[in-house]
Amino acid sequence: MKLNIYKDSDAAIQSIATYLVDLAKKSIAEKGRFDISLSGGSSPKKLYELLAKNFASDIDWTKVFFFFGDERYVAHDHPDSNYLMATTAMAPLNLGEAQIFKVDTSLDPESAALDYEKCIKKHFGENVAFDLILLGLGDDAHTASLFPGTDILFNDENLVKDVYLKDKEVYRISMTAPLINQAKNVAFLTFGEGKANALQAILEAEKDITKYPAQLIKPLNGEVQWFIDEAAASKLSN
Ligand SMILES: O=C(O)[C@H](O)[C@@H](O)[C@H](O)[C@H](O)COP(=O)(O)O
Q1: What's 86's domain CATH number?
Q2: How far, in Å, is the centroid of ligand 1 from the Cα of 70?
Q3: 198 CA to middle of ligand 1, Å?
Q4: Mean pLDDT, residues 216-224 taken together
Q5: What is the ipTM of this complex?
Q6: Residue 108 lies in a domain
Q7: Which of 84, 137, 227 to mutate to test the pocket of ligand 1 (most atoms within 8 A of CB)?
Q8: Is 39's C-beta closer than 6 angstroms to any atom of ligand 1?
Q9: CA distance 179 to 146
Q10: Residue identifier of the C-alpha nearest atom 4 of ligand 1
Q11: Gap from CA of 218 to ligand 1 centroid (Å)
Q12: Is 235 inside any structural domain?
């Protein structure tokens, strides 16, 4: 696990963009494509915009294939859609429809999860291993839609599962920890004082995945990098 601490989120995002593009170059050179899973929420939006603005000519973006670590169970044109957020931010890259694998939220939640799992398995074949999975962190220590107290935390059968969030009365479709842990590289983007307690608990508290789900993320053969700002790191002891 590598902790990268920056003075602010802009510096962190610049560094993640460079790290991502370097991984993409290597992967495209080695296997002819780069398979990435995007995080949702607000933190990564600036990263996607930066990639489109400053890195458009650094790699052959037609060889990049985008999936989503989780998706809100809404239409793709709904303001909460991670698909809408990411594709809007990266619009200048003119990505082809076939490069972006969105969750089919027109299906019922359980079928949407099964369908997305099928889509991932079809893309990867036997060995489902993303080159990079980007993850955010909630202030309750959730990541993707692995929320405290939800059944998905104990799911080791599926690669993708529907999650019902009782408090918000909404569904999410999320990659499971076993799928994320098959990735070659995982990068967390975590910024702001509001995440400091969650980050400290995840990295320094006792292991309790029901309270701190992001503790589940330990890639079997990969590396986890944290890209954080000083505000998010402010409660770490060392
Ligand atoms: O769909 C989502 O919302 C994300 O996948 C979720 O896991 C997010 O990464 C965290 O909630 C942090 O969100 P912010 O970046 O908005 O703080």
Answers
A1: 3.40.50.1360
A2: 9
A3: 13
A4: 94
A5: 0.96
A6: yes
A7: 137
A8: yes
A9: 12
A10: 40
A11: 19
A12: no
Q: Answer whether residue 238 shows pLDDT above 90.
A: no
Count the domains in the chain: 1
Tokens of 117: 């799992």
C-beta of 222 in contact with ligand 1 (< 6 A): no
What six digits make up the tokens of 131?
Answer: 């080159």
| pLDDT tens figures, 48-104 | 999 999 999 999 999 999 999 999 999 999 999 999 999 999 999 999 999 999 999
Burial class (CB in 10 A: 0-12, 13-18, 19+), 94: exposed
Q: How much is the average pLDDT of 186-192?
A: 98
pTM of this structure: 0.98
CB-based burial, 1-39: b 16+ in 10 Å, e otherwise: eeebebeebeebbbebbebbbebbeebbeeeebbbbbbb
Residue 205 lies in a domain: yes
42 alpha carbon – ligand 1 mean position (Å): 7
Q: For ligand 1, say whether the CB of 40 is within 6 Å of any of its atoms.
A: yes
Domain interval for residue 124:
2-229
Q: Report yes or no: 146 and 152 within 8 Å, Cβ to Cβ.
A: yes
Average per-residue pLDDT for the chain: 97
User: What is the best residue among 13, 38, 42 to mutate for testing ligand 1's pocket, by most ligand atoms within 8 Å of CB?
Assistant: 42
| pLDDT one-digit tens code per residue, 136-148 | 999 999 999 999 9
Distance CA 99, CA 87 (A): 11
Domain for residue 237, yes or no? no
